[in-house]
Amino acid sequence: MQELETFKLIERISAILRSEERKKYAAIGLQPVHGQVLDYLAKCNHYSNTHAAVAEYLGLTKGTVSQTIQILERRHYLEKTTDAVDGRVVHLTLTETGYALLEDLKPLDVFKHAETQLSEREFETIGQALRATLSVLQKVNNSKSFGLCRSCRHFAVEANHYHCGLTEQPLARGDTEKICRDHQPFSDPHHEE
Fold first, then answer.
1. For the whole model, what pTM was predicted?
2. Domain boundary among 81, 105, 129
3. Residue 72 domain-assigned (yes or no)
4. Strand order of the sheet with strand 155-158?
5. Which residue, 90, 105, 120, sits at the end of a domain?
6. d(CA 193, CA 183)
7. Largest CA distance in the chain
8. Same structural domain for residues 99 and 85?
9. How many domains, the chain?
10. Distance between first and last Cα of the chain
11. Is residue 191 a part of any domain in this protein?
């Protein structure tokens, strides 16, 4: 059961980071896949900078990679060169503009901020570390926690039934095990006890 909780925490952290990434790329008219291609090409060697290698590494179709590379080439983030030995092979290399874009977009500011806040703390389990990371990322990103109802500051057990103090409504037992968009963690300093 602990593995499932760890997976859910990682999944939620990833969702926040993907959301931030999409915002950054949308601001410049690109998609995260464009950054993934540039990031791969910045790290790979001369034998691995081809359309096929990009598709294989990122798990994308050849069509998606081809369209992505066309966009990146039109925007002067990468350039194509034909292999000197095998004219059928096309190599993809980043331009200075491509490297500059990667520098501007990575690492995500929200993650750097969370890392700074958590770097001095020690955790007994990976679950504690992930929960703390998620909490900081949510605060930095001004996102809702979407936590389990039963872990919310408004959750209460009254006269043998479950109750939401925010809505002043009774809760079905099944709902207490589900996530809520109005969830407020007990440690949330922005809300009064």
1. 0.63
2. 105
3. yes
4. 155-158, 161-164, 169-171
5. 105
6. 14
7. 80
8. yes
9. 2
10. 31
11. no
DSSP string, the chain: -HHHHHHHHHHHHHHHHHHHHHHHHHHTT--HHHHHHHHHHHH--TTS-SHHHHHHHHT--HHHHHHHHHHHHHTTSEEEEE-SS-TT-EEEEE-HHHHHHHHHH-S-HHHHHHHHHHTT---SSHHHHHHHHHHHHHHHTT-----BGGGSTTEEEETTEEEETTTTEEE-GGGGGSB-TT---TT-TTS--
Residue range of the domain that includes 76: 31-105
**Domain match, 166 and 113 both:** yes
Model pLDDT for residues 135-173, shown as the tens digit of each residue = 777 776 666 666 777 788 888 888 888 888 888 888 888
Instruction: Provide the residue type at 80 as one letter.
Output: K
